[in-house]
Design brief:
Strand content: 5-15%
Protein name: SET domain-containing protein
Distance between the termini: 80 Å
Biased composition (Polar residues): 216-240
InterPro entries: SET_dom_sf, SETD3_SETD6_MTase
Organism: Hordeum vulgare subsp. vulgare (Domesticated barley)
Radius of gyration: 28 Å
Region (Disordered): 216-241
Largest sheet: 4 strands, antiparallel
Length: 563
């Protein structure tokens, strides 16, 4: 039995094997390498001052190595069964990749073993939290979302995933006796969400020949070709709903989610040194149909040897980072607060059905995201940018179009209101008293007298604004934010106490410079999870306090104008 001290050398051996596997399959690293990070896991590091050379390309990987839905459907071992599942609608493209990852990780003879062996086995994302760690985010949106996600994943595993992976493992004898556990699914789910990229695959790569060339006389797709038209449509339609994928499709690129071994070892930083691109023809990399990692300042500045080469995962708040990736960013400029009015509470109000119908007709939402950046133009912000002027013009236009009779004036505080008008429209509707509801109905009756006509969303908003103004909505907003703060503090204390805990954590980490062991790594990982929880929940309390302050000021001014 090996001792704990042998673990690092085992990781080194697996990493060497993976790097050899990359090279054997046509990939190359130029002026960089993949090695262990200070934290658990690996990262990409510069090994030369002129990393990437004049063109800045430090890594190139053939797209044949990418784990995508198409790659799964073409797999000689499990592809036929996966094709049938996909065509029947039994799995979507993301689940298809997860099933493949699970089966290949469990299969002793997998050709993907060098890659799968170096992937992390556990994660810091909230779905992996133990009960103690999850209690550290009690009262937050993340806490509720994590509990719901666990239940959803467990049900999906029990109802579908377990049986399908066992079926894929039985395709060859090497995996026929392997037990499939929920933890395997949790692992594959986390691998996908932490490492998948939205890849613009060249159309010629997915369809190597014309449709006529790909079909025989019976109309069936010949072996060796890529996807049928319907399979391509299914995959790209599902993926085009993501944030970073364009809404259009063209004949040049087909956007697909997948894992690209090597490039997926880049960690996140908002000040990223590198970006990735696809080289369809191989003009830059020398590898047709490849993805490459390129330094953002290629040829303009040198990179110090040993510098970690980061990419930017996008503008994400700590809630999303902790939920999906398992880390947070201190003082995250992209942090946000989720505020919502519970639908259960709405159903208990007088005239609930009418109010819910009005909210639906206004295309309004019961929840909204409040990014940190909104605070810049509030009463206590410092922004004087032209962007603020654009927002003010938009809001002024919004109110001018709401003037029903001209009796209710545009509020004096309009320029300092940081809250989205769409959400305030929802709150105005919810806060209406019975007599106000009757007045709104009377106004709308003026435009909806015809049997075939229904008031528009703008007309409904206009009528509600004319009758109610902002006072009721702002009072409801203040109540929502106070309840949110109470929930946050009831679960984990005040923002000040979180600040003290962070100071203790950071001082312990600074003093702890002992040599690493397996047990120490586990303790370090647990501390990292707890610290991430504190950073996240402290940020939520800070944002709640700042938005509450803005809402209370608006309520005061609204009350003055109401009298």
């Amino acid at each position: 039995m090996s001792s704990p001290a042998a673990a690092p050398s085992d990781d080194d051996a697996k990493l060497r094997c993976f790097l050899q596997w990359l090279q054997a399959n046509g990939a190359y690293l130029r002026g960089c390498t993949i090695r262990a990070c200070g934290r658990t896991g690996f990262g990409v590091y510069a090994t030369a001052v002129d990393a990437g050379g004049a063109d800045g390309v430090v890594m190139a990987v053939p797209l044949d190595l990418a784990v995508t839905p198409m790659r799964v459907l073409q797999d000689p071992l499990v592809g036929p069964r996966c094709r049938a599942l996909f065509e029947e609608g039994g799995v979507d493209d993301r689940l298809l990749v997860m099933l493949f990852l699970m089966a290949e990780r469990l299969r002793p003879t997998s050709l993907w073993k060098p890659y799968l062996d170096v992937l992390p086995s556990t994660f810091g994302s909230s779905v992996w939290f133990d009960d103690e760690e999850l209690a550290e985010v009690e009262g937050t949106t993340l806490h509720r979302a994590t509990i719901m996600q666990r239940k959803s994943l467990q049900k999906l595993f029990d109802d579908k995933v377990k049986g399908l992976v066992e079926e894929l493992l039985h395709v060859d004898e090497s995996g026929s006796s392997i037990e499939v556990r929920f933890e395997d699914f949790l692992w594959a789910n986390s691998i996908f969400w932490t490492r998948a990229l939205n890849i613009p695959l060249p159309h010629s790569y997915v369809f190597p020949g014309s449709l006529d060339e790909q079909q025989n006389s019976t109309g069936e797709v010949l072996s060796g070709s890529s996807l049928t038209n319907q399979q391509e449509t299914d995959i790209t339609t599902k993926n085009c709903s993501g944030d970073k994928i364009p809404e259009y499709r063209n004949t040049e690129s087909i956007w697909v989610e997948g894992l690209v071994p090597g490039i997926d070892f880049c960690n996140h930083n908002v000040k990223a040194l590198a970006t990735w691109e696809v080289d369809p023809e191989g003009n830059l990399t020398g590898i047709p149909a490849s993805m490459y990692l390129m330094l953002a300042q290629a040829g303009k500045s040198s990179v110090e040897t040993g510098t970690e080469i980061y990419i930017n995962y996008g503008n994400k708040g700590n809630e999303e980072l902790l939920y999906l990736y398992g880390f947070v960013v201190d003082n995250n400029p992209d942090d946000y607060l989720m505020v919502h009015y519970p639908v259960e509470a709405l159903r208990q109000l007088q005239s609930a059905d009418i109010k819910m119908k009005l909210i639906e007709m206004q295309k309004a939402e019961l929840r909204c995201l409040l990014p940190t950046s909104l605070l810049d133009r509030g009463f206590f912000g410092t922004s004087t940018s032209s962007g603020e002027d654009d927002d003010n013009k938009k809001n002024a236009s919004h109110f001018s179009s709401y003037s029903w009779s001209g009796q209710r004036k545009v509020p004096s505080y309009l320029k300092k209101n940081v809250f989205p008008q769409e959400f305030l429209s929802t709150l105005r509707t919810i806060a209406m008293q019975e007599h106000e509801l009757e007045q709104v109905a009377s106004l709308l009756g003026e435009v909806g007298s015809s049997e075939d006509s229904e008031p528009s969303d703008a007309e409904i908003k206009s009528a509600i604004w004319e009758v109610c103004g902002d006072h009721g909505a702002l009072g409801l907003l203040v109540d929502l934010l106070r309840v949110k703060m109470a929930e946050l503090e009831e679960g984990t204390g005040t923002e000040a106490s979180d600040g003290q805990l962070l100071e203790k954590f950071d001082s312990i980490d600074a003093e702890d410079s002992s040599s690493a062991t397996v047990e120490r790594n586990k303790a370090t990982k647990s501390r990292a999870n707890l610290r991430s929880c504190i950073v996240y929940r402290r940020g939520q309390k800070q944002l709640t306090m700042m938005f509450l302050r803005e809402a209370e000021r608006l309520l005061e001014l609204s009350a003055d104008e109401q009298t």
